[in-house]
Amino acid sequence: MKRETLPLPVVVPKIAPHVKRRQRLAKLLKEGLMLLPTSREATRNADAHYDYRWDSYFYYLTGFREPEAVVAITLGKNPRHILFCREKNLEREIWDGFRFGPAMAREIFGFDECYPIADLDRLVPDLMSNQAVIHTPVGADALWDASVAKWLNAVRAKIRQGISAPSEVHDVRRHIDLQRLIKDETEIDIMRRAGKISSDAHTRAMRMAKPGMYEYQVEAELLHEFVRNGARQPAYGSIVAAGGNACVLHYRENSAQLKTGELMLIDAGCELESYAADITRTFPIAGKFSPAQRDVYELVLESQLACIKAVKPGNPFGKYHEVAVNVLAQGLIDLKLCKGSLASVIETEAYKQFYMHRAGHWLGLDVHDAGNYRQPNGKWVEMEPGMVVTVEPGIYIRPADKVPKAFWDIGVRIEDDILVTKKGNENLTASCPKAVKDVEAATATAAG
Ligand code: GLY
Ligand code: MN
Ligand code: MN
Predict the structure, then answer these.
(1) What is the C-alpha to C-alpha distance for residues 147 and 132, in angstroms, rounded to an integer?
(2) φ, ψ for residue 32, nearest 5 deg
(3) What is the pTM of this model?
(4) Which of 26, 255, 322, 323 is the most exposed place for a label (fewest CB within 10 A)?
(5) Rounded to the nearest whole angstrom, what is the distance from the C-alpha of residue 224 to the centroid of ligand 2?
(6) For a pLDDT cut of 90, what percent of the chain falls above it?
(7) Is the pLDDT of residue 445 over 80?
(8) What is the DSSP letter of 30?
(9) Is residue 4 predicted with pLDDT exceeding 80?
C-alpha cells in the first residue's frame, strides 16, 4: 500500500519571529561565528529520562525542540544561518517519535543550511577558520566548553597552512539576554494565554480545596487545568502549602492535610509554548479569613497593588521592591510585629524576620528569566515596554516568643505577572481572584 504524505506529527511554532531574532542578533554581533547548542537529555533514574526541555536561548533563536541540535550563524555582510540536527532514523522514530531531519528542518525552520549533528566535528572547525571571534555560551556546560576548545585547537593546528584561528571567545548570552528582556508580540500573546490558564488553575484550586484533602490533591487540580489547556508542564515545581508550610519559601513536599482555620498558599504557573506563568495566591481553607489572617492578607495586598503601580516605563527595576519594603514595614509596625520607627525598621532590616525575599523577577522563557537587573554602571535596569516582571511581596510569620499566637503560621504571598506597556502596565494574571471578598467567594466552603 502506498502511503500519502502524512501531516506533520508535531506542532511547529510560528517561525518568522525566530528568524527575525536571529537576524537581529547577527546585526548586533557584526563579525565572527555564533554557535549555540540546545540542552542535553537528562537521565532521571536507570534508563528513564526527565521529560526533555530544550534550552531557552536555543529555542528563542530557532523554535526547534529536538535534542542534539546546534545553531550557527556566520556573521558579516551575508550571514548564513545553519542548523545541525539529528538525521531521520526510521527505527528511532518508530520507538521515540518523529524527527525532522536536516532537509525538512531547513525548509520549515527557515535556515540557509542544515547538516546532521554527526557532522559537527567535521564542519565546525571550517566555520571557525579565519574568524576573529567566536560567540557562544561560555561556562554553561563543561562538555560544550571542551568541544569549543577542541574545535579551536583543530583550527590552530592548521595555521601553518595559512588559516587564522579566532583570538577571542565571547559569551553570546549577554547579547541574547538584552533581546529576551523585551518581549515581542508573539511572546506577549503566548504569555497572556499562559497567564489566563494559570489564573484558571488557581481559581479551580480555590474552589476544590477543602479541609481533609491533601496538598497533593490540590496540586492535581492545578495540573488538570494546565494540561487540559495544552500546557503540558508546570513552569516550575508547584508550591502547594497549607498552614505553616507557607512559611517555607520553596516548599515542595506538598503532602500535608488541609485543616479548617488554616491558610493555603499556592505558587504555581504553567509553561505554555515554552513560556512561563508564575502566580501566587493565598486563601482560607475554610472559606473565611480569621481577623489576624485578614490583617496580614490585606497588608500584603496593599503592598502588592502599590508595587504594581511602580511597574512602568522609566522606573528603575529596584523601585517596586523599595515600595514593597516601605508598605510592609509600616504594616508590620501597625500590627505590632515590628517595633520602632519606619526608618529604623528599614535601616536595621527588622522587617526581614517576616519578609525576606525580593519583590519580583523577570519572567519569560524561564521563570526566573534571562537578563541582568543592574546595568554595568551599577544602576538598576530601567523598565521599558515589553518587559515582563512578577510582583510578589509576602509576609511569613513563624511561631516566635514575641509574636502573638493569632499570627503564628500565617504565610501570605500574592504574585501577578506584569507586562510593562507604553502607558504603564498590563496585568497578565488579572483574572485570578485577589480581593478579600473575591478570594472568599471563590473558595470551596463559600461555594458550598
Ligand atoms: N515560583 C518562583 C518564584 O516565585 O520566584
Ligand atoms: Mn512564584
Ligand atoms: Mn516569582
Answers:
(1) 18
(2) 100, -155
(3) 0.96
(4) 255
(5) 19
(6) 96
(7) no
(8) -
(9) no
